[in-house]
Amino acid sequence: xxxxxxxxKLLAWQVHHAAxxxxxxxxxxxVFFSILGRTFEIFTxxxxxxxxxxxxxxxxxxxISSSLFFACSNNPPETSHDPxxxxxxxxxxxxxxxxxxxxxxxxxxxxxFNNTFYAEDSMIKVKYDGYGDFGGRFGHLFxxxxxxxxxxxxxxxxxxxxxxGGPEWALRNSGAMLHGQPAxxxxxxxxxxxxxxxxxxxxxxxxxxxxxxxxxxxxxxxRNGALVTDHCMESTAKTxxxxxxxxxxxxxxxxxxxxxxxxxxxxxxxxxxxxxxxxVSHFDSTLYKAGxxxxxxxxxxxxxxxxxxxxxxxxxxxxxxTDKKAKNYKSYFVKQKNTxxxxx
Length: 344
Prior knowledge:
alpha+beta
């Protein structure tokens, strides 16, 4: 076989082998030297006006390619898909509110009155500059995508003073609305989305005010096998006074189980959320039938008259491909959605 023909086959093999490098940098270096060697061979061929590669050129090429082969092989290739590795997604990019939609009472969707919700210092912040009187302008910042089975993490803290005219109960009060209605279905003057609320409360410096309570605007839930129609239910969490950060976690499994978790402990648990109940004004009552189960929905963050900050908003989707033969199978998925499976 002519050296020139052999050289071309070696070059093709070397470029193919670059795919096994541990990083793109390794692969790029590998291909660079492959091209460099090829260029050197062509130059030599033209220079000496030969039909075939000179033996010493091919030996030089093999020396270079072999050293690169072993250098690349010493870096183990990327491991195959790990079905047990949790793939958390950040719902907030730390820079702006892309992927989020504000809805404030008295305004249309995406009218962010006086920049109530804004991004700064890798946080989503809620402020009331220019409000004057709060005037019942409750706000909710909706994430663009609904979820049904998931784990959610969020850090929050209350800062500053409550906006003038805010309700007394809204002092250091906010929340994460789970299994909510789509933002697009909220009417202009509607005050709260139909949802189940994981209520965030901050201490006032004197009284006990447990956080991660449950409130049910337009919904009811079951606890201990019985339907509960109370609007708000107190958790077993402790009180957090001052402006300290609080790390909240939630486990949401459709309508079968919802848990509020604080410091590794479940402080509120319930199931079978369903439409019904009160504590929502000016909503479209034709959209929902009392008693209808709620198995998923939107996630939103509240503005209820007290300045609040949010950060580290992370979600682990528990719904996905459950076929172990698929490339994107995950052992922690609890809800099958095999239309998402990838096999090649």
